[in-house]
């Protein structure tokens, strides 16, 4: 949206364009703490508000019973184009997590627009959705039982709030994704690939299947992951036949890749593949996952960087999920021809 359009459009115009208004939400005040019902897994907090034309940043905080402790600080910095997540312990900020979110309409936190946020509680992390799309997760650093208040601060207006319980996340009744992507042999994907992303695999997943992921690492990558899974929910947790998780900024160690699967309600024994991997921040890459007889082989360019023996039947896989510090250019699938 151009600068001229931002200033010409009124707040009322922005509200007319807002398709996530929820009549069950109630008006709340900026800077004033709101007492929450006790949080538990399946608790969901809905926050909507208007980001004014001259907004610089705002924050959504889940504050604890003990003064000076904040379990979640969710802080879009509109002037910088990124989002900070953090906790505060005894008045001191801990290690922050950041990302630079870009959506189908460019940066998702835009001035002179209304925003819909959902914070959903699972057993181990907050799951955060923005305007109907899952945005990020933040692992608990405080138990949910310690959280007592919601407080919104900064440049956000017309705040509304609701607390409820959900049995699935993202809930299609509340989160209405703008994208519905299907990957087939005849239809590679090159558009609407903003991360995090769920892609339905629209063909049989079997031995000989190859997944091709062309993309670029962000400039300061922490990690990203690729899941071959059954179903597209985050909660309840999907069955994952392959969880592929390259990790980068862990002290002074070289990048390494963690592989695992999720079944019967938990992660199983992880496998770590180390060694010099040619991941370059800001550089393009081609990642290939090949479903072979014994297991999956993982290729970076023309070099095999790891393998993961089958623990689940490949035929259960119907969804490709990618999240983290990566920009996607192209997704494709094909089958290796039998000799």
TrEMBL record:
Origin superkingdom: Eukaryota
UniProt xrefs under SUPFAM superfamilies: Concanavalin A-like lectins/glucanases
One matching Pfam family: Gal-bind_lectin
InterPro entries cross-referenced by the UniProt entry: ConA-like_dom_sf (IPR013320), Galectin-like (IPR044156), Galectin_CRD (IPR001079)
Keyword Ligase in annotation: no
Molecular function terms, GO-annotated: carbohydrate binding; galactoside binding
Stated name of the protein: Galectin
Species in which this protein is naturally found: Odynerus spinipes
Lineage: Eukaryota, Metazoa, Ecdysozoa, Arthropoda, Hexapoda
């Amino acid at each position: 949206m151009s600068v001229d359009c931002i200033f010409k459009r009124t707040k009322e115009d922005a509200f007319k364009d807002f398709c996530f208004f929820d009549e069950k939400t109630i008006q709340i005040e900026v800077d004033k703490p709101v007492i929450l019902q006790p949080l538990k897994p399946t608790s969901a907090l809905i926050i909507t508000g208007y980001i004014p034309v001259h907004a610089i940043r705002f924050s959504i905080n889940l504050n604890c019973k003990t003064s000076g402790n904040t379990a979640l600080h969710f802080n879009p910095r509109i002037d910088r184009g990124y989002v900070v997540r953090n906790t505060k312990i005894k008045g001191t900020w801990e290690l922050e997590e950041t990302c630079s979110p870009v959506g189908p309409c460019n940066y998702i936190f835009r001035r002179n627009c209304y925003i819909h946020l959902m914070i959903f509680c699972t057993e181990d992390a907050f799951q955060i959705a923005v305007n109907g799309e899952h945005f990020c997760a933040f692992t608990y650093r405080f138990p949910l039982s310690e959280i007592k208040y919601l407080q919104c601060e900064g440049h956000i207006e017309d705040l509304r709030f609701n607390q409820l319980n959900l049995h699935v996340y993202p809930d299609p009744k509340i989160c209405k994704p703008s994208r519905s992507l299907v990957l087939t042999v005849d239809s590679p994907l090159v558009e609407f690939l903003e991360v995090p992303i769920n892609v339905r695999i629209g063909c049989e997943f079997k031995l000989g299947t190859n997944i091709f992921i062309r993309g670029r690492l962000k400039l300061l990558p922490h990690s990203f992951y690729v899941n071959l899974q059954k179903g597209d929910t985050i909660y309840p947790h999907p069955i994952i036949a392959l969880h592929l998780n390259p990790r980068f900024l862990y002290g002074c160690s070289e990048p390494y890749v963690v592989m695992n699967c999720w079944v019967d309600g938990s992660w199983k024994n992880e496998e770590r593949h180390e060694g010099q991997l040619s991941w370059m921040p800001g550089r393009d890459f081609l990642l290939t996952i090949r479903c072979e007889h014994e297991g999956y082989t993982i290729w970076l360019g023309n070099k095999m960087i790891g393998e993961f023996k089958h623990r689940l039947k490949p035929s259960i896989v119907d969804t490709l999920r990618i999240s983290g510090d990566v920009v996607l250019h192209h997704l494709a699938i094909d089958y290796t021809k039998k000799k």
